[in-house]
Amino acid sequence: MASSGPPTVETIAQRAGVSIASVSRVMNGHGARPDTVRRVERAAAELGYVPNAVARSLKGGRTRQITFAMQDIGNPAYVSMFREIQAVTRPLGYRLLLHSTDADAAAELGVVRSLADRTSDGLILCPIRVTDEHLTAMREAVRPIVVIGSLPEGATVDSVRADSVSGAALALRHLLESGRRRIAFINGPADTVPGRNRLLGYEKALRDAGVTPERGLTETTEFGIEAGAAAAHRLLDADPAIDSVFCANDQLALGAAHAAQDRGLDIPGDLAVIGMDDSELARASRPLLSSVDLGSAERGRIAARMLVARLEESPPPPGSPVRCETVAPRLVVRGSSSPLGVGSGIPA
Amino acid sequence: MASSGPPTVETIAQRAGVSIASVSRVMNGHGARPDTVRRVERAAAELGYVPNAVARSLKGGRTRQITFAMQDIGNPAYVSMFREIQAVTRPLGYRLLLHSTDADAAAELGVVRSLADRTSDGLILCPIRVTDEHLTAMREAVRPIVVIGSLPEGATVDSVRADSVSGAALALRHLLESGRRRIAFINGPADTVPGRNRLLGYEKALRDAGVTPERGLTETTEFGIEAGAAAAHRLLDADPAIDSVFCANDQLALGAAHAAQDRGLDIPGDLAVIGMDDSELARASRPLLSSVDLGSAERGRIAARMLVARLEESPPPPGSPVRCETVAPRLVVRGSSSPLGVGSGIPA
DNA sequence: CTGAAAGCGCTAACAC
DNA sequence: GTGTTAGCGCTTTCAG
């Protein structure tokens, strides 16, 4: 008696002496006579029966899988998002497919298009760039998509965005209020949506304070500790009067802090440093880094909830309105931008 | 004409005026007359046909999905593994399911058991603890599993392990050779396999050097920067003569370095610090942290290759031997453990 | 409450 | 080469 392969509804049905329909009903908790339930459950337990999820998906048209795609899972901001997404979706029985696209725009488009193969029920996407091709692909997607990031007006996709303009403003205002005047900016790749927005925020906040942004005070580079250090050196070489530097993420800020310290500068005495994302790295430096929390965790949570909501609303109402939420930034002030002498974390 | 739902083989077949079998053949590149190929491809393109992966899986018995499960995707060591696993499997057409179990042993067991639902073709698992229950579950699993971590002798599961004993020895020898004598150890949770091994390695290396390990020189704590700092303070409070501290990961080491600096100690002059994993955090401190690279990336790569190999060998040869590889550790010496005055990164 | 049967979309024999 | 047909394992009418 070759029990060829794992047990199926049929195996169980035979053993329990009922029909496969009854097995299915019992497995799904759809009413059945107590006796039937008992026999099926016993047979299932004895044989270690587990329903085949693929067959279920084929029948039901839903896989209970969600895809989360972003540039780089090494980035703490995305880790926070992943955690929250998992926290929302797993209890609901969803599995999570992760795609770290390595900032490859083609790969990103591929992810959107791959929704068509019905492998996952929905997609949470953090795009680096949003081209018309992206928008078209998203509009035509067979499954709901939630974008974490900014979309052009009129886009017909749900999204949750950070407010990096306000975030930058928060940091700049803080620096200006504590008396800094020559505030440099180290940005990440500028040809991305967040990159553009952070630059906008930086310049706007300066203008609002009556200061004209100078080109020489902005550096653009890849994300990374070393890149941040190099950028800071360039900035300080060109203009030793710089008294503070705002960075587009914590890696850059940490690098900048190192560079400054290697030049013998005191932080925050000679140079204030502020990062973005408020990741673990902000607590990995001395002095501790001030940082603007753009709410990665919260954005992840909201995106997950939005997507799940779409998935539950059985027949997607054709004209149902596009949803868009914005998460407010939060400035966390630590030693790296304190007024001189306070909490610098470095013994004088 | 309600084109109810996305196109299927049938839709394409009708439009192309061929049978569904021909559509399937063309889609899978199985020979067909050039004319047939053209017509099918045209129809498919016009309708934006994408084969339903779920139906394929049901037929083929394979989902082309792999699950990777570990404690915490926030840990840089696991990020490296994930990257390498993805690099190996994606080009082969596999999707990656990620499970961050949060060190919940029950969740971990659940992952192993969930293989039974045929959702993924195989599992790469980094267990925290390996109980008999785990071993049984793994032995009975319907799908191949590769464990990244140490398994008890006689386990019938493929695995790739780090050599944390040698890794610890590497660090200790280096410290001893550079003249350190009172070497403390800050360990992570000791009731885990890696925790136990690292302690073993620490004690063995000391004994090999003719030093008797003292209980008071070892601290056990959770992983985390703050936890590392607290442990270092306890250690130094109890024994100010400690001249070096070896830590079970970079977070702990970073915390320990901060604690020492906050006490006014010079690193490496007064205290040498060595971490483990050689993660980005090692480059996030001043001085740069020495660290023992346990080969996370390589372990990930090897595990992925092992699993893929199992998946390709069509009928799993019943008696095929269990595979087990061990990755050699590598000590990366940086400023935090240099001989005094060399490369400390802090201006004297 | 239960069983028989249809069918989700696809691939792979098997005949022609 | 190509079409016909039989399932993969499950859920869900539809009768009884």
Automatic annotation (TrEMBL), chains A, B:
Domain called HTH lacI-type: residue spans: 7-60
CDD domains membership: HTH_LacI, PBP1_LacI_sugar_binding-like
GO molecular function terms listed in the Swiss-Prot or TrEMBL record: DNA-binding transcription factor activity; transcription cis-regulatory region binding
Keywords: DNA-binding, Transcription, Transcription regulation
Gene3D superfamilies reported in the protein's UniProt record: 3.40.50.2300, lambda repressor-like DNA-binding domains
Stated name of the protein: LacI family transcriptional regulator
Organism: Streptomyces tsukubensis
Organism placement in taxonomy: Bacteria, Bacillati, Actinomycetota, Actinomycetes, Kitasatosporales
